[in-house]
């Protein structure tokens, strides 16, 4: 089980590192188009939560392994949901293209993207993150991490979605536009 855990966790950490590089590149492009960031004050809390997520999950899995516990018989269910979330993440990133970011950017004069999953959901990438944070720990029976991080993420998303919705309201003004959903 530990080998599988470290392989999957390593892949996810690598994925996050690549996403941060993409976000940085996209942020620079957005700023070059006259865009600007909004809601930066709460971003650090997401960074902290995601760091604690990996640390907490690893500690809980190592503790459970020391107790001789292995994957539950039903681990494929949360793993399948986690994999589906990855597909939805790729769809979100593809739909937003150069405007996908982990931060909230406003681009004057730009309309919100309404293609891909954004045709069906207001904030599909936040759904992806919520599924990931809940399901990945369940694969490895890290129940404490799954529950605590899911609740904390919901509290942070309440603030973030409020900030992003305000940016979307600004987008309907004739002289303003908005980025699109971030991670």
Can you tell me about this structure?
This protein has helices at about 1-30, 45-65, 75-95, 125-140, 145-170; strands at about 35-40, 105. It has a two-stranded antiparallel ribbon with strand order 1-2. It has about 180 residues and is mainly alpha-helical. The chain is elongated. Pfam families: ICMT. This is Isoprenylcysteine carboxylmethyltransferase family protein.
What would you say about this model in short?
It is found in: Membrane. This protein is mainly α.
CATH topology, anyone?
A: Four Helix Bundle (Hemerythrin (Met), subunit A)
Mean pLDDT equals: 91
Q: Give the distance, in angstroms, between the N- and C-terminal Cα atoms.
A: 29 Å
CATH classification, class level: Mainly Alpha
Count of DSSP helices?
5
What summary fits the major beta sheet? Answer: 2 strands, antiparallel
Unreliable residue stretches: 175-180
Q: What's the overall geometry?
A: elongated
